[in-house]
Amino acid sequence: MRVFTIAMVTAVALASAGAAQAGCWATAGVSPQPPHTAGTPWNASIRIMQHGRTPLTNASPSLTIRNAETGASKTFRSESTGKAGVYRANVVFPSGGTWRYVVNDGFPVRECARTHTFAPVDITGAGGSSSSTWTIAGATGLAVLLGVLLFAAVRLRRRPALAPSVN
Questions:
Q1: 146 has a pLDDT exceeding 90
Q2: pTM > 0.85: yes or no
Q3: What is the domain extent for residue 44?
Q4: How far apart are CA 69 and CA 27, in angstroms?
Q5: Into how many domains does the chain fold?
């Protein structure tokens, strides 16, 4: 009888472990695309689908942004929208630069939660300008100034000499 009990406990443990792992994954999607300007609120809709098909209604996803140059990061928690499997995170990029973002799907079984990575985005500084914009504007302005000076130098050089005045 003792051998039978040990065998049954082992069988139940193995069966339940397999069943728990069978449904232990989800996909994550984010829409709309992030804004292009720092400081602009991004109401990111996060869709979590178990097995990529069934909306996961008891997840607690979060969205993390990380500046590629400085490493600064911030995590934004999401709230359910009331629509099955759809959550909302209110995200704000604090400065311009290249930002990467990831979603932790918040899978209800902690060991199953995964991080989903998305393509980096370029964000301009608040006010709609970035350092690259100022660099291009500065280079353009300098080129125009040099062109005007060169034109003026050529025009002055070609000017005919004045004839001596006779009194």
A1: no
A2: no
A3: 24-147
A4: 28
A5: 1
